[in-house]
Amino acid sequence: MKGFLLLLPVTVAGTLLLGSLSYVLVERPLRRRFHGRVRSPDPAGQATPARTGDGRDARKAGT
Q: Is the pTM of this model over 0.70?
């Protein structure tokens, strides 16, 4: 039990560190690169614009 109590904080800290590094080094650059790109066409055959950050469609942002 003593070993577990010593290892638990180290494991949690390591997991948080690796998760943060993964987000900064992988996810953020990919999100910046692909933000605003047009997604695959909808069933009607028209291209669907990517969603804006506030949850609205880009084409509805002006209304």
A: no
